Structure formats: structure tokens, C-alpha cells
Amino acid sequence: MNGENFTLSEKLVSPSYVRQASQARRSHELLIRQLLEQGKCPEEGWSESTIELFLNELAVMDSNNFLGNCGVGEREGRVASSLVARRHYRLIHGIGRSGDIAAVQPKAAGSSLLNKLTNSVVLDILKLSGVRSVASCFVVPMATGMSLTLCFLTLRHRRPQARFIIWPRIDQKSCFKAMITAGFEPVVVENVLEGDELRTDLEAVERKIEELGAENILCVHSTTSCFAPRVPDRLEELATVCAKYNIPHIVNNAYGVQSSKCMHLIQQGARVGRIDAFVQSLDKNFMVPVGGAIIAGFDESFIQEISKMYPGRASASPSLDVLITLLTLGASGYKKLLSERKEIYSYLAQELKSLASAHGEKLLHTPHNPISLAMSLDGLQAESDKAVTQLGSMLFTRQVSGARVIPLGKEQTISGHTFRGFMSHSEAYPCPYLNAASAVGITREDVTQCIRRLDKCLKTLRKDVIFSLIKGIED
């Protein structure tokens, strides 16, 4: 309804009612205007009616929704199922063009505008979360691992003779396979044990650079968010080393946006040294379906170079999901979620510490990890070799998801490389342990239920061990 149609409506309905309706419509349009003018996440979240009005306005800008459109090409935004069309708000053309994921599509002005606005709003959120000097970013419809691969493939054109990627060890398959898929040889640098924490071995990183030759190294591939007792890499020091040897630096910031500490590390690393790009997951940081990531950096031309490396058009679903989510939350709503996550981290640490003490275990001291916690399972291991792995199964069947039980001595071969002590980020961590994390969206009730069920599982296991011992004596 535009002004002319509202005027015509006054012939059918009382003019005072129509003017009131027109003013209500205007309030929706003012919010949309501010978004278009500023390109930033609104401070306060929008109502669903405003968001749906906006998405419908975008959809009618795409040629597949033109009333008189006659499509004779191979890709005309045709959808067989009306349910699928509604699921995507009739934004069918996706984002980008065959040569550039960030390019504008002539026959999809609405979808192109969606893409540009999403990248702008996400950039604003990255700045709000702590990386103030980030220059550019884009949403890519791939999860973190493949997005890292895209970064490595882009660097290949800048450093054609490079074969190696320096990688401080983190026992997570996708980031390792990202390097293999891109065609490079990961150089695994083992972590050093400092107290209970596993930290970056900076001397070993520098030795590897000098041994292999800086010109033969594609980049250093570091990590922020991770499972305790590993902690975020020493980003400032690594960034300084990268600047010293003129080696690119790619950061796996998978679920680090939700942590002010992880974002501060990236900001400081870029300030004192070199960080070329950092990659983060959409689902882990913004509570949307799996399938998208954000590639961001401090040099706009390099980020554009990465986006142009993506072959073909791309799905708009991840961009649509994160834009709807951020418009719903608003900047204040997202900041509130981050604050609540931090509070619950302290609550989880307190509850795990009490539980560990009650069962003769300890909460591992990992102050440099702002998201994940670890509780030792020494006593359980001493009572029975199978009890540690059995605990993981018991928790899963009791609907405790996300908790990880890490036994000693596990080996895993990934793409020809064998990791000893796999899942513990170390060849010989001193004890088995259990992980739990306080990630965005967690509630106090989640923690309470987890601790209660974990307590019951530990008690059950110890009863079973005692019963087995008694039975063995009797036999």
C-alpha cells in the first residue's frame, strides 16, 4: 500500500481509520529505511510482522515474482513446491553470479540487496563483539571447514610455490581436512602443557618456519575457540611471528564470536602483527541452522579476493537465516545473549567444581579458555578401564548432548596422519576428562539438569565397579 492507495481507501473506509493504518505502516517503513541507510543491526529487535513485510518487499524485486515475467532461460527461479517457495519467502535466485558470490544479479535485485545487507549487518555485529577494526566480511553458504579451504585456495594464487601450513594442534577433524582438501601438507605443532592448560608452542612454530623456509609456507593456521584443556592460541605472538617472516595468518574462530576474549585476541593480533582472515560458524554463534560461515578480515581487497574464488552462485538460505535472526534480536538482544552466556559459564564452572570434589575429581584449571571446561576422571579410570568411555555412552542415552568424555591413549588416523591421544589435543595428556561448554543460548536449567544426570551416572558407575569387584572375589 502506497500513499495513493491509502487515499483511494478513504472512499471505502473512514478517512480517520485509514490515516491511522497509514501511520502504522509508516512505522514499519521507517525501520526498513534506517536499515537501508545505516546498514547496521538495529539496536532493538524488529517484530515478525516488520521482518515479513521487508522480506516480501525484497521478494517482489526478483524477476521470478514479476507478474508479467516470461522466463526462457535455464535458471528462472521456478519452484515446483509452494511449500518450498514459502520456506524461502520466494527468494529463489540465491546470491552472487557465476564469477563472484558478492556480485549483483540483474534479475534478482531483491536477493542481491538481501546479500549486501546481510554482510553489512554481520560486519556491524563483528565490530560490536570486539573486533573493532575489521574491514570487510561476507557470509558464505558453507560450514567452517570448507570456508577455511576457500581461504587456503585463495592464498595459493598469492604463494604458488608454498606447500605447507603450520598448524598448532587441535583435535578437530574438519579444520585438519580443510588443509588436506586444499592440497596442502599440514605441519602439526604439538602444544605445551602449562599447569592443566595446553598452549601454543611458539618456539616450535618458529623453528618449523626456519626449517621449511618461509617462502614454502602457505600460512599459519591458528585457533581461538576450542575444547578445554586446550586454550586459544597465542594469537598476538603468532601474528607477530607471521609479520616478521611475511607469512599469511588464517584464524579458525569457529564459535569465538560469542566470546569477548576470543574476539579481543583477534583484534590485538591484527593490531600488533598479521591476521589475514578469520572464519566463524553461523550456527554456533547465531543459533541458526548449520550450513553457513562468515569470512572476515582487515584488508578489504583480500576478502573480496576470497569471495571471487567461490565458483558459481550460492544458496541464500544462510544469509536469510542470519539476517532474520539479527533483525529479531537487535544489537541489544544479541549483547544480552552474550552476557547471559558469560554468567552461565561461571555457574557451570561452580557446579562442575562442586560435583568433581564430591566424586574425588577436580575441575581442571583452564582460565584462558572462556567457553569450555574440563573435569578430570582420574578416579573413574583407576576403578575401571572401561568406565570412562561407558560414562560418555550413559550421558548420551540420558539426553545429555554436547558433553565429551576423553579417554587416554586413543589413536586416530586422518588423511594419512596418525594422532596419538586423539581428542585430547596432546600425545600424552596426564588424565582422562569430561568436557562441557557454556555456549550462546545455554540456560541455567541446561546446567542443572546436566549436573544432576552426570552425578547419577558417576554414582551408578561406581556401584557397578564395586559390585563387579565383590563378585570377582566371591568367584
Automatic annotation (TrEMBL):
GO terms for cellular component: cytoplasm. Keywords: Cytoplasm, Protein biosynthesis, Pyridoxal phosphate, RNA-binding, Selenium, Transferase, tRNA-binding. Pathway: Aminoacyl-tRNA biosynthesis; selenocysteinyl-tRNA(Sec) biosynthesis; selenocysteinyl-tRNA(Sec) from L-seryl-tRNA(Sec) (archaeal/eukaryal route): step 2/2. Its EC number is 2.9.1.2. Pyridoxal 5'-phosphate binds at residue 75. The modification N6-(pyridoxal phosphate)lysine is found at residue 284. Gene3D superfamilies: Type I PLP-dependent aspartate aminotransferase-like (Major domain). It comes from the Eukaryota. Substrate binds at residues 97-98, 105, 313. This is O-phosphoseryl-tRNA(Sec) selenium transferase. The lineage of its organism: Eukaryota, Metazoa, Chordata, Craniata, Vertebrata.
